[in-house]
Amino acid sequence: MARGDLTNEEWAVLAPLLPAQPVQGRRWRDHRQVINAICWVKRTGSPWRDLPERYGLWKTPYQRFRRWAADGTWARLKAQVVTLAELDDDIDWDAQIDATIVRAHQHAAGAAKRGSTSPEHRHAKASDAPAAG
């Protein structure tokens, strides 16, 4: 198991909530491996094609992610996991945000902008300029 992959305890919670294997057609790749791959992509922000080989081909988790997003599987998983966490008192809904610590970049500190500052010249095109003469 790689760092960041689902633990056995996490998998025990998720496994019963996932869709069953299709009755007809090919068997799906193991849900645990696919979810670990999806989590890796979402955690790292990497493109799907950069998925490490240990997770298999990138197309499988990509397609499963899109399919489950479209059919509402992710939303159902989230709702059920939140419900389980609430029943166990493992979730705290009290959150506070202190916006006073948000800072702008030093270059956004009010320095004058380059170029014309008058509104009538702000959107002028080169062809609209008076002819030099």
Brief synopsis:
This protein is mostly helical.
Account of the protein in words:
- InterPro entries: IS402-like_dom, Transposase_6_like.
- Residues 6-77 form the Insertion element IS402-like domain.
- It comes from Actinoplanes utahensis.
- This protein has 133 residues and is an all-alpha fold.
- It has a domain at 8-16 and 28-87.
- It is 37% helix and 0% strand.
- It contains four helices and no strands.
- It has helices at 8-14, 31-44, 59-71, 73-87.
- Helix 2 packs across helix 3 (59-71).
- The longest helix has 15 residues, at 73-87.
- The model has no long low-confidence stretch (mean pLDDT 82).
How do the helices and strands line up, and which of them pair or pack?
Layout: H1 8-14, H2 31-44, H3 59-71, H4 73-87
Protein traits:
single chain; 133 residues; mainly alpha; 4 helices; 37% helix; extended
Number of strands: 0
Number of alpha- plus pi-helical segments: 4
Order of helices and strands: HHHH
Main sheet summary: none
Mean pLDDT: 82
Radius of gyration: 26 Å
Content-based structural category: mainly alpha
Which percent range fits the helix content? Answer: 25-40%
Shape: extended
The percent range for strand residues is under 5%
Note poorly predicted spans: none
Distance linking N and C termini: 76 Å
